[in-house]
Design goal:
By secondary structure, the protein is an all-alpha fold. The protein contains four helices and no strands. The protein is elongated, with a radius of gyration of 21 Å.
Length: 83
C-alpha cells in the first residue's frame, strides 16, 4: 500500500471518529444509559473503537502479506523443487 492511500485511510478514520463522537454526544443521557455508555466515557470509547479498527486492519494487511509470500513460495523453484 502506498503512502497516499495510507494517508487517505487515516483521514477517513479520523472523520469517522469525530462523527461517531459527535453523534454520541448528541444523544440524551437516557439513551446513552440504554446502550450502556456514560457521557464521560464517549471520548475513550471512540478512541478504543479506532484503535481496534486499526489493529484489525494491520492484522488483515499482515495476513495478505503472508498469503502473497506463501503463494510465491508454491512451485517457486525452492530447494525441494530442484531435487
Amino acid at each position: 500500500m502506498d503512502i497516499v492511500s495510507s494517508i487517505v485511510r487515516f483521514m477517513r478514520q479520523e472523520v469517522d471518529l469525530r462523527r461517531t463522537r459527535k453523534s454520541l454526544h448528541e444523544l440524551d443521557d437516557r439513551i446513552l444509559q440504554d446502550i450502556g455508555v456514560r457521557r464521560d466515557e464517549i471520548n475513550s470509547l471512540t478512541l478504543q473503537l479506532r484503535d481496534n479498527a486499526r489493529a484489525q486492519a494491520a492484522a488483515e494487511a499482515q495476513n495478505r502479506r503472508n498469503d502473497k509470500a506463501h503463494k510465491r513460495g508454491l512451485g517457486g523453484g525452492g530447494f525441494a523443487a530442484q531435487h
